[in-house]
Structure formats: structure tokens, C-alpha cells
């Protein structure tokens, strides 16, 4: 004790006289429950199946992210209530994730998830469930339906009695829509006058027609995308898409996709339902793991984002990723069969324009040769695969009806110093999808199918930089004379054989682009670009007729959907550029025969776009109409004559008005003169100047020799 007393005395003064009151440091209490979700519409099972169901649900929710785990507690982030009185589960489960992000992702991924054939899951955040618990139960009252409001007829423009087409232009701060009949100057339909009076911007960026022409989208980056339609282009819907750069409609006009091209925005790409205006899903500009982390920021910026593509019937939306194609089921926007389509080394893919078929090509990858694959959806069945060797690049081109697929293959020699081309041609609608290879010794600069036909054209030259090129036409069928059989004098007729056939070659042309008419038969051989001559060659592939025109510095050729007229433009991007060619900006409208119909010039010209129209006739019906065209010739001629007469009357309206006024004045003056006849005769002592008997008629004949000529005949 003495030692302890001495030690205490020695430590005197080292301790504080303040009382010791330690306070534990607890972590901050999180009472938001933002990491918790509630899954409902689970199967109700008895106690014997409780553990099995729990394992299945736990495995499903764990794929989203790790569940919460607390030290010293048996709670694992998963709880599925069991009703002992009913002897079964109650059909729901409580889930807590480690992060709020995983909880939000679970709501997006598991909502409407097909747990089995009788149960589709419904996922709620805890906050929403708490709100529903506080709702008082009361008798349901049927809400009063909103009064019916007739929507504008978005197809009314097709009822035009003159069967005219429409196009939209953007120049300066103006946006205007015009009618075009293919004969006279275009007529203004609407230029945003209603919005100008209200002080509202109709359009501040580009415009876009929907694929069938029902909707007209104008881009206002600060507000998003605005849809217009109906007789007077009434406002139909606005979609919130800040910074929108361009839009893409689905082929059946059920959905619309916007893109702001912002690499740092996780919601850069948005998919909307046009009917409801709801955003179905948002995507970043690049898929995950698409860009190699070893690349520098400059190298990454040079890689364009992989585009989305719609199927022809709006059922699927697909996007290329790294070694895969992600196919989303619309409108749920979930992966088809919960997994992507594996495509090792894929570089490009294209949807068929008429079937749920995807074609893609991949270069040599992991000791596998380069290949082109044709895949059917949703079965993922491989319809055809073509292996290729020594491939540098491929380009996929579908025919408009999806009957043929052309693949332009650029190959290299073993030394990789020499490049050459060949075409792989797939007959998609034939059994087994046979493939024909067409060797081309020259470099192929352009390849294009005839719409709704079996012909295609290529531009080729020995040197890709040549100013003089050749244009060759091929047909997927060859006309063959049948063999004469013994005992028969005449053959039965010509036969079509499925074999690539060279039709003709046009040599020494100055063109770098080819544009088929939507009606087929006519093709434009154009030299486009700043360094090109702007030559336009209108070539009729059936009659072999050629008309040459020119539009200096033209950079676009745009056919109208009927194939009656086309427009060539000199345009500049809205963001700037091409200002040194401001004197050339504008457009020219031509007939399909090369006749100039209209020309307009603008200091700043940004966009020209025809209004699309849906094709209602197939190839057979179109041929039937062409065959019986004379039946309607009188009707068309009468309509044209009535239209010309109306135009003549309109043009001479002023002249006819002046003529009527002159005749009325002349009649009035004649009446005044007639009333003054007696006064006039009195002043002339009874002489009537209008009486012919007071005049003597004398006839005099005068002959004048204008010229004479003498000829000596021996």
C-alpha cells in the first residue's frame, strides 16, 4: 500500500480534474432506405418449397450487385415473409443492397421480369411502398373520362388532289415546308408563321421527317425535340432531350431515339415512345468496355460511337459492342433472351430492311478467318456463313426489299502492299442462301442496288484516285434462250437463270457517287464535293439515253420518294464551315429527265429533306398498274388540261380584268356620244357625220414593183 501511495503522489498533477464521460462515435444513421427494394408478384409456395424459392430469388437479385451484410447480425440483405396461418409465402420479398445505385438498377432490370410463365415481377423502391401503406382504404370511384379531343390527321397531306410531294429546307434562321408537283415552281405550305407571331422558336437546329412522313421533328437543343403534324403543322408532342444533336425514328414510327453526342453523359442516347412520350431507356454514348483503356484520350475521341439500328417491324433495337451485338426487345428495352449475341471481332452489322435478319462481318480473330454471318432473330439461328481470307475491310449493302445482300470486300496480297476488290452476293430469299463471288480487277469506289430490282451498279477504276472512272451494271439474273428440241420448230420462250450477268459498262465517266431513282430504271452519276466538277449524268438504263447537267460544288443528291424529281444541294453544317462558298449555297430541283424546274440560292443553307411516303404497292402490283396505264391516260390528260387552264386563267386574271374595264369604259363613252347626236347635228346645220350617204366612195388601185429579176436561159 505504501508503494501505491508513493506512486500516486508522484503522478499527482498529471491527471485532469474533469470527470471522464466517454461518448461512443456511432456511424451516421441512414433512414432513407434508398438501398431497399420490395419485389412483389412472387409465387406463393408452402413451407416445403420455401427454401428452394428463396435460393432462386436470392440468386436472381445477387446478379445485380452485392447485398447488404451487417457484422454480428444474421440479416443477409434478403427477407421473404411467410404467413403461418395461411401456410404459404405472401408473394413478396425485401431486398437491401450495399449501394443505392444497385437498388435503382434492380428496379430497372427486374421490373416486368418473367420469373415463370405465370409470374412477372414488380419491383418497388421502399419509399414508394411506404407511401402506399399510408394510403387510406376507401371505395373505388370510377374516374371521369377526359373529354375526347380529336388529334390532327398526320396523313392528311397524302390526300392532296394534285398528288404533290413535300420537302423542308433550313436556311439562315428560317425553316420552311414546300409543295412540289414536278412541273412548276415549289409552293410554300408552312414557314412557322404561327410560332413567329407568338415569339416562339419553331426550329433552331436540324429537322427530321419520320419514315412514313407522319411527323415532322424540329430540334431546339435547349428544349429538346418537338413533333409537328396535321394540316397546319400543329404541335403534337415535346420530348425533353437537352443538347439534342440528331434524332432517328423507328421504321414504323412507334419510337424515336435522340442523341446529344456528349461522351460524359450517361444518358446521352434516349429512346422515347411517340404515343406516350415516355422515355423507355437511356444509354451512354459508348457501350461498356467498348473503348480500349490503353488508348489515349485523343485516340478515343477519333473512334465514332457504334450506332443503334432498328428492325423493320420495330420489334428490336440493336447495338454493336465489343465482340457482341446487344439486341433489345421493344418496348421493354431488355436484352433479348437476357443475353447478347456473341460475335467475335465484329466490325459492322446491318438489319435486313424487310425481315428480322442481321448480317455482320468480322475480321480475322483468334486464329479464325474473316467471315460474313447472316443471323435470324429471335431464334439466333445462323442462316449462312461465308469465310473470307486476306481481308482488309468489308462493306455491307442490303437491297431495298431485302432480297439480296452485297458485301464489298477489300483484300490484300500476302505482302499487304497491293489491295484489290471482289463482291460477295447473297441471295437471301433462296433456300440455303447461295453466295456468288464477283471478281473485280479494279478498285471499287461505290456500290448500289436498284430499288425493288435485281440490278446493281458499281464505280470502278484501276486507280482509286483516277478522275476518269467506269460504271458497270450487273443483273442477278441472266436471260437464256432455251434449247430447241427435235421435232419442234419454235422454242417455248426465254428463261431467267439465277446467275450474275454483266449488262453494260459506261467508260470514261467523271463521277464518284451513284444514286438510283426510287422507281428504278433511272440512275444519277454524280461528281460531288468541293474538288469535283459537279457533273450530273441522268442515265436511263432501259432506253440507254443520257442527259448531262451540272451543279457546281454540289454535295448532295436527293431523290423524292416517287422518283419524279430530285434535288441537288450545296449546303454547310450549322456549326460552321464552307463559308467561303456562300455564293454557291442553295438547291436546284430537277425532273428525272434532267430538266431544271427550280433554283434557289441562300447565303447560309443547311438542309434539304424530302417528306417520305409509304410504298403501298409491291413489285407485282406496280407492274400491273404500268401495264394498264393507258386505261387511266384520258383521266390524267383531262386533269392536266384542267390544271393548265386554271393556271392560264390565274396568269391572265389581271389582263382580263383590264380588258373588261376597257370595254365598260368604251360602252359608256359610246352611249354618251349617242345621246349628244342631236346637239352635234344642230351645231353642224343638220349635217350627220355618221350618215354614209353623205360620203362619196372612190376606189384607187396602186401597183408598186418591189423587185424584179431577169434570167437568161440558153
Describe the structure.
Helices cover 15% and strands 34% of the residues. It has 714 residues and is α+β, with helices and mostly antiparallel strands. The strands form 13 sheets. Strands 20, 21, 22, 23 and 24 form a 5-stranded antiparallel sheet that branches. The protein is extended and about 175 Å long. The chain starts with a helix and ends in a 31-residue tail after the last helix. The mean pLDDT is 88.
Mean pLDDT, as a whole number? 88
Quaternary status: single chain
Q: Which radius of gyration do the C-alpha atoms yield?
A: 40 Å
Number of helices: 10
- Termini, distance in Å? 178 Å
Q: In percent, how much strand structure appears in the residues?
A: 25-35%
Shape: extended
Uncertain parts: none
Helical proportion?
Answer: 10-25%
Biggest β-sheet strands, sense, barrel: 5 strands, antiparallel
Secondary structure category? alpha+beta
What is the strand tally? 47
Amino acid at each position: 500500500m505504501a508503494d501505491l501511495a508513493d506512486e500516486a503522489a508522484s503522478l499527482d498533477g498529471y491527471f485532469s480534474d474533469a470527470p471522464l464521460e466517454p461518448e461512443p462515435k456511432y456511424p451516421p444513421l441512414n433512414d432513407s432506405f434508398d438501398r431497399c427494394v420490395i419485389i412483389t408478384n412472387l409465387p406463393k409456395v408452402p413451407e416445403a418449397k420455401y427454401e428452394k424459392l428463396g435460393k432462386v430469388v436470392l440468386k436472381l437479385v445477387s446478379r445485380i450487385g452485392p447485398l447488404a451484410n451487417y457484422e454480428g447480425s444474421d440479416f443477409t440483405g434478403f427477407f421473404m415473409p411467410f404467413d403461418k396461418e395461411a401456410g404459404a409465402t405472401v408473394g413478396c420479398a425485401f431486398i437491401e443492397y450495399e449501394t443505392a445505385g444497385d437498388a435503382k438498377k434492380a428496379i430497372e432490370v427486374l421490373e416486368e421480369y418473367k420469373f415463370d410463365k405465370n409470374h412477372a415481377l414488380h419491383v418497388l423502391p421502399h419509399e414508394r411502398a411506404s407511401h402506399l401503406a399510408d394510403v387510406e382504404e376507401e371505395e373505388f370511384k370510377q374516374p371521369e373520362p377526359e373529354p375526347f379531343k380529336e388529334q390532327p390527321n398526320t396523313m392528311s397531306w397524302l390526300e392532296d388532289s394534285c398528288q404533290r410531294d413535300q420537302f423542308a429546307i433550313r436556311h439562315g434562321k428560317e425553316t420552311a415546308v414546300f409543295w412540289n408537283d414536278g412541273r412548276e415552281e415549289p409552293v410554300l405550305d408552312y414557314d412557322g408563321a404561327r410560332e413567329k407571331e407568338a415569339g416562339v422558336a419553331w426550329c433552331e437546329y436540324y429537322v427530321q421527317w419520320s419514315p412514313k412522313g407522319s411527323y415532322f421533328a424540329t430540334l431546339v437543343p435547349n428544349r429538346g425535340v418537338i413533333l409537328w403534324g396535321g394540316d397546319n403543322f400543329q404541335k403534337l408532342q415535346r420530348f425533353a432531350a437537352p443538347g439534342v444533336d440528331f434524332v432517328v425514328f423507328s421504321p414504323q414510327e412507334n419510337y424515336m431515339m435522340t442523341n446529344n453526342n456528349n461522351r460524359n453523359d450517361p444518358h446521352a442516347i434516349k429512346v422515347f415512345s411517340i404515343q406516350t412520350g415516355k422515355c423507355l431507356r437511356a444509354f451512354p454514348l459508348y457501350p461498356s468496355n467498348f473503348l480500349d483503356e490503353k488508348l489515349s484520350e485523343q485516340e478515343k475521341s477519333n473512334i465514332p460511337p457504334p450506332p443503334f439500328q432498328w428492325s423493320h417491324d420495330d420489334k428490336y433495337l440493336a447495338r454493336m459492342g465489343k465482340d457482341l451485338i446487344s439486341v433489345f426487345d421493344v418496348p421493354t428495352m431488355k436484352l433479348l433472351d437476357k443475353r447478347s449475341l456473341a460475335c467475335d471481332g465484329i466490325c459492322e452489322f446491318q438489319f435486313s430492311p424487310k425481315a428480322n435478319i442481321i448480317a455482320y462481318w468480322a475480321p480475322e480473330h483468334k486464329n479464325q478467318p474473316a467471315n460474313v454471318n447472316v443471323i435470324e432473330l429471335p431464334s439466333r439461328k445462323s442462316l449462312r456463313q461465308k469465310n473470307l481470307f486476306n481481308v482488309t475491310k468489308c462493306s455491307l449493302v442490303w437491297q431495298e426489299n431485302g432480297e439480296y445482300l452485297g458485301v464489298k470486300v477489300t483484300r490484300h496480297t500476302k505482302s499487304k502492299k497491293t489491295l484489290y476488290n471482289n463482291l460477295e452476293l447473297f441471295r437471301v430469299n433462296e433456300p440455303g442462301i447461295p453466295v456468288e463471288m464477283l471478281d473485280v480487277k479494279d478498285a471499287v469506289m461505290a456500290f448500289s442496288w436498284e430499288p425493288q430490282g435485281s440490278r446493281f451498279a458499281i464505280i470502278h477504276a484501276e486507280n482509286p484516285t483516277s478522275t476518269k472512272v467506269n460504271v458497270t451494271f450487273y443483273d442477278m439474273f441472266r436471260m437464256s434462250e432455251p434449247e430447241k428440241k427435235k421435232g419442234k420448230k419454235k422454242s417455248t420462250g426465254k428463261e431467267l437463270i439465277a446467275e450474275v450477268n454483266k449488262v453494260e459498262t459506261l467508260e470514261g465517266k467523271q463521277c464518284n457517287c451513284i444514286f438510283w431513282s426510287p422507281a428504278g430504271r433511272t440512275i444519277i452519276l454524280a461528281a460531288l464535293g468541293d474538288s469535283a466538277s459537279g457533273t450530273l449524268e441522268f442515265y436511263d438504263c432501259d432506253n440507254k439515253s443520257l442527259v448531262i447537267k451540272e451543279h457546281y460544288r454540289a454535295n448532295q443528291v436527293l431523290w423524292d420518294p416517287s422518283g419524279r424529281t430530285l434535288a441537288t444541294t450545296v449546303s454547310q453544317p450549322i456549326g460552321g464551315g464552307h463559308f467561303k462558298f456562300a455564293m454557291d449555297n442553295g438547291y436546284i430541283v430537277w425532273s428525272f429527265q434532267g430538266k431544271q424546274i427550280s433554283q434557289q440560292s441562300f447565303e447560309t443553307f443547311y438542309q434539304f429533306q424530302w417528306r417520305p411516303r409509304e410504298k403501298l404497292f409491291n413489285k407485282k402490283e406496280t407492274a400491273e398498274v404500268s401495264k394498264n396505264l393507258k386505261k387511266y391516260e384520258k383521266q390524267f390528260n383531262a386533269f392536266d388540261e384542267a390544271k393548265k387552264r386554271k393556271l392560264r386563267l390565274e396568269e391572265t386574271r389581271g389582263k382580263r380584268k383590264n380588258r373588261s374595264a376597257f370595254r365598260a369604259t368604251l360602252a359608256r363613252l359610246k352611249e354618251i356620244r349617242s345621246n349628244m347626236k342631236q346637239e352635234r347635228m344642230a351645231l353642224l346645220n343638220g349635217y350627220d357625220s355618221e350618215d354614209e350617204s353623205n360620203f362619196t366612195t372612190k376606189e384607187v388601185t396602186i401597183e408598186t414593183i418591189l423587185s424584179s429579176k431577169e434570167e437568161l436561159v440558153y
